[in-house]
Design goal:
The structure is a single chain. It is built from 10 helices and 10 strands.
Length: 285
């Protein structure tokens, strides 16, 4: 579905290697998590595999098509949701999705059925005929997701897809990611939410300073799930022992701080009137 081999990327006028000899391969029907701190090389890797950025060496294949040699065929099999929801804001939601559907040559009947289904799924029905410039952050993210799915891609690439979404929309996206993979498709998704990743992903890769440091299974491996946070912090050099001491006990303990006592619980506290002065006792009047 996706095969990345010895990928290397150096930005112009920089001697720093942003992505250094990264290799991995995604299987049909899996959700693959791509983790790392800001600046680790996640977004650069994603922009290379989506064809947005050129790269210095290595190969990227999507459904058997080389992204450099056969870019159109490769991109026809991929849907991409960026982390900054870049869209043409002067278009309406419907116009934008139709524009993307034209690029992917989606037949009229199919695109209408899919657009209506996804608009209902993400609760955008009443906004589809409004200009995107008037959308909220979360609504822009949703229209990007609809556009990325309109051609039902075999590979769905999501860069921090849950940012700015309400809990209902987040749940719907998670459900659709699972449904997409159940059809034999693949989801490649980057996230800073480690708890979500270990519940959702079959496998995960951790990158740091441009290198792919570790790649391991999560599905069916309870030890890897339990140790994901520790692995991540150790690999990224941010491990702090105090965060993991007696971790299981902390999870079962109520960690909420004690609420301060209210005025009603304090016999020394005198009731106040609206102007902030203490109300005089009737016996003293």
């Amino acid at each position: 579905m996706l095969k990345v081999t010895n990928l290397k990327k150096i930005y112009p006028k920089s001697d720093r290697v942003a992505v250094d000899n990264i290799s991995f391969e995604l299987k049909p029907g899996e959700i693959f998590g791509f983790l790392g701190q800001n600046g680790a090389g996640k977004s650069t890797t994603i922009k290379c595999l989506t064809g947005i950025l050129p790269f210095d060496s290595g190969t990227i294949e999507i459904c058997g098509y080389d992204i450099v040699k056969e870019p159109i065929k490769a991109k026809m099999n991929m849907g991409y949701v960026p982390d900054n929801h870049s869209v043409y804001e002067k278009l309406t939601g419907r116009e934008y999705v139709n524009f993307v559907a034209d690029l992917y040559k989606v037949p009229s009947e199919l695109r209408k059925e899919r657009m209506d289904r996804y608009a209902k799924l993400f609760r955008l029905e009443s906004a589809m005929n409004r200009q995107i410039r008037g959308y909220s952050h979360g609504m822009k993210q949703k229209i990007c997701i609809i556009a990325a799915l309109i051609h039902e891609p075999k590979l769905w690439v999501l860069d921090e897809p849950m940012m700015g979404l309400d809990p209902q929309s987040t749940a719907e996206i998670i459900a659709h990611m699972r449904e997409h993979c159940a059809k034999g498709n693949t989801v490649f998704f980057s996230s800073h939410n480690l708890d979500l990743v270990k519940k959702l992903c079959h496998r995960v890769a951790i990158v740091n300073d441009g290198h792919l440091v570790d790649l391991f299974d999560l599905a069916g491996n309870e030890a890897n799930k339990a140790n994901l946070e520790e692995k991540f912090f150790r690999i990224t050099g941010t491990y702090d022992k105090r965060l993991f001491e007696d971790y299981a006990a902390q999870e079962s303990e109520d960690m909420r701080p004690q609420l301060p006592a209210s005025d009603e619980d304090d016999p020394k506290s005198a009731p106040c009137v609206a102007d902030g002065s203490a109300k005089q006792d009737p016996a003293e009047e």
